[in-house]
Design a protein that fits this description.
Blueprint (H helix, E strand, L loop, with lengths): L2 E6 L13 E3 L6 E3 L1 H7 L5 H4 L7 H7 L6 H18 L6 E5 L4 E6 L17 H13 L3 E7 L7 H21 L7 E5 L5 E6 L5 E3 L4 E7 L2 H8 L2
Parallel strand pairs: 6-7
Antiparallel strand pairs: 1-8, 2-3, 4-5, 5-10, 6-10, 8-9
């Protein structure tokens, strides 16, 4: 069974499911919805994904002591890391995707597997997968890491907002316990916002996957470091 994956924010986004927003994954040949096209069509509502680091990158780059990499080196590291993450998380339900033109790597932890309903406790069976993610983050240190939490619509918006923040914090705490520098990470919760639908290809069946955490890995170049330091 083949599925496409799409982020939506409100029913108005359904109009973007036409062929104009489709792209073909060069690795699998699978038709997917263009995330960039969706972000543009929704007037920037996916800014958390397509935008920069939480709180800006200048202070975080300096605080984390990131050295940065030359452009060509950074590009190769990006390709290597996304390839390794896909291999290491294969079969776990994790989605690993490129954001923009090597702007970031998005690691989406699966709905219902990472957390139970109403819980911010990471399911023990998912820890091995998180260990692989942590090893990758340590192996490629020249990046900032944003951790985003989301919920379904069970419960009140206020409760869900707190829960989403707790889920993001729980994943960041676990990554830190595995050796990822806390200074590289920032967290944010989005509550019920930004539904994530798994869309069955050729059908109109949408499977919501909203009880999730997303890890956005933002590569840092030597130019970024120089700019942060005012050089």
């Amino acid at each position: 069974m083949t599925f496409s994956r799409i982020l939506l924010s409100g029913t108005a986004a359904l109009a973007l499911l036409g062929t104009s927003a489709c792209v073909t994954d060069p690795n699998t040949g699978e038709k997917k919805i263009s995330r960039t096209a969706i972000g543009t069509g929704l007037g920037g509502t996916l800014g958390y994904l397509l935008g920069g680091a939480i709180g800006g990158d200048t202070g975080r780059i300096i605080g984390a002591g990131i050295g940065g990499s030359a452009g060509a080196v950074l590009g190769k590291q990006y390709d290597d890391q996304i390839k390794e993450l896909k291999e290491q998380t294969a079969g776990s339900g994790v989605d690993v995707e490129e954001v923009g033109d090597q702007d970031a790597i998005l690691v989406r932890l699966p709905d219902g597997v990472t957390f139970a309903t109403g819980s911010a406790s990471i399911n023990p069976g998912f820890l091995d997968t998180l260990n692989n993610v942590a090893e990758s983050l340590i192996r490629y240190p020249n990046s900032l890491i944003d951790v985003y939490g989301f919920t379904d619509t069970t419960g009140s918006p206020a409760v869900n907002q707190r829960l989403s923040e707790q889920r993001a914090q729980a994943v960041a705490d676990y990554l830190a316990a595995r050796g990822v520098a806390r200074s590289r990470m920032a967290t944010q919760g989005f509550g019920e916002q930004y539904d994530y639908l798994r869309v069955k290809t050729g059908d109109n069946v949408n499977e919501p996957m909203n009880r999730r955490v997303e890890i956005k890995i933002i590569p840092v170049s030597q130019d970024d470091v120089n700019a942060a330091r005012g050089n």
